[in-house]
Task: structure prediction
Amino acid sequence: MAEMTYAAAGAAALSETMEADRTVWALGEDLGRGGVFGQYAGLEARFGAERIVSTPISEAAIMGVGVGAAMTGTRPVVEMRFADFALCATDELINQAAKARFMFGGQTRVPLTVRMPVGMWRSSAAQHSQSLEALYTHIPGLVVMMPATPADNHAMLKAAILSDDPVVYLEHKNLWPLSGEVPDDAAPYRIGTAGVARQGSDLTIVTWSATLHDILAAAGRAAQAGVADIEVLDLRTLWPWDKACVLQSVRRTGRLLIAHEAVVVGGFGAEVAATVAEELHSDLKAPVRRIGAPKLPIGYAPTLENEIRLGPDRLDAAIARMMS
Amino acid sequence: MSNRGNLDRNRFLAYHREMLRIRALEETALEGLKQGLVLGAIHPSIGQEAIAAGVAGQLRRDDILLSTHRGHGHTLAKGADPEAMMRELFGRQGGNCGGKGGSMHIADFSVGMLGANGVVGANIVIATGAAHAIRLHGDDRIVACFFGDGAINRGPFLEGLNWAAAFDLPVLFICEDNGFAATTRSADLTAGPGPAARAASFGMDAESIDGNDITIVAETAESLIDRVRRNRKPAFLHARTYRLTGHTGADPATYRPATEVEQAWQNDPIARSRALLVAAGVETEVFDTMERAVAAEMKQVFEAARNAPWPDPAEGLTDVLDARAPEVA
Ligand SMILES: Cc1ncc(C[n+]2csc(CCOP(=O)(O)OP(=O)(O)O)c2C)c(N)n1
Ligand SMILES: [Mg+2]
Result:
């Protein structure tokens, strides 16, 4: 058992995987200096510049090289620096990585992990703050993962790297300094499984990534105020998502709220809501609801950024509404 | 440049045969298109065969090749089975990709052919990645990456060439310059002195050649590939040619005068190869026998593909993801 940050847990996961498998390598801008958020700290010194590769500012090439190298017997970990910049490599990810196995009739696999830091973080404004997971959950052929804790970042990143599927791996920038226990002997993470972050009986809240922590705090307040006993599910993998876990919980509580930092319209919450409405219509005591960002670019000034954020007031109101 | 008096007859007969096979495969595919057997668009490389045969002829079986939407010639010359290719074009079982890809996604990983591509220029960065993986593995394979003159105006061209040069990767980039990007004359929209100059600006060895002369293609490719293999650095081959058909099998190519096309037929690489071999003393019967054998091969390929069963619809559900969420109770 070790106490480490979310960033260090990511570095440890990569390091352990590289130690065990010579074909694992990482590529991205400034990785030799530890990456922009320190999530590669110490790795170049340990593994050398041949396996921790600092690249030119060439997102299409970083992703495309990852695809070609994944089809040529290696397991690349591609770093996009900010999820926003991965948009410069959408062809390489969506048309190439996600399609190669299928369109070539199973002749190849693309064991690629694409790390994309997401989320609002210190007035980073419209081009450095987005949560774009729904873009990737829409694409057949991609796994989409979003860890919320240091322990999960450790276990989930290892699972992503060892997977033969292409994985879009979205870490939240606000979580880098978050510290937590990372067990040495944790069972390997099984891709596609949600976690029960808090047990409860009145209301199920499905969430993921940094929003998990806001929801846990809100659930604590709701319990204290006697508003509701909330079950909090951390989806962790968005595709394939753990329908079984969600359905089983909502069947019991009869109420579902989905909370995410991304824009609500067309967000992945819509998929969860639609599925629960289709499957559990007669079990529901209240309409399924979603809460997330308005359909707005993210502003720079804190007062503007806070318009987008799921602050405590909005969360408490959403919970009260679910219980009314 | 080549010593034509001393043409290595067996070597160039082999390339000649390969060019005939590519031409016959594509003519067969065009016939299949006419009969409704080829289901999607095909982009014939008729008139450009010397580049495929001349470059692929210098590659080892374990070398890697990446191609474009106009990739039948590269695929066949790298060693793919023509019957599997025709089955793929007809969308049938036994196609290289099981009918999941079609012409624009044809691939045969068993011979190092890592795919045609439906996205112009996309293969340049993927090829660079294959070469980067070879660097990590530390073996002596190389990668050959084909693309058209239109692709050099896309971003991945700059990113891929810079990367390959910056990391000393063993790639031969081959720009097949047929003068057109779909209906556009590339020269009208391409600034500067051309593909080889762009490659040279990255410090790469770059040669600009007549891509319809099989001897020049083969000998230049041989020398560049030898340098790429020994020096573990990229190189660039700019091969000028002409697309004798429309952009696709269905394109009447009305955007260019008939006289231009007639003139281009005078420069047909297969006719030129034959003339060279005749001058080197190869008898007419040798060509006749070769042409008959190629025609018979492609006739058999056509019949086999036409009679092949459709893919089982259940195949459409496979080869997407391994990951599975827990079953819903
Ligand atoms: C990114 C992208 N843009 C446009 C197209 C449509 N398209 C297919 S082939 C082609 C022309 C390509 O010209 P060139 O690279 O010279 O290859 P050629 O067809 O001449 O072999 C175009 C525009 C495409 N497939 N991909
Ligand atoms: Mg062209």
About this structure: Residues 195-323 of chain A form a domain with the Rossmann fold fold (CATH 3.40.50.920). Chain A has twelve helices and 14 strands.
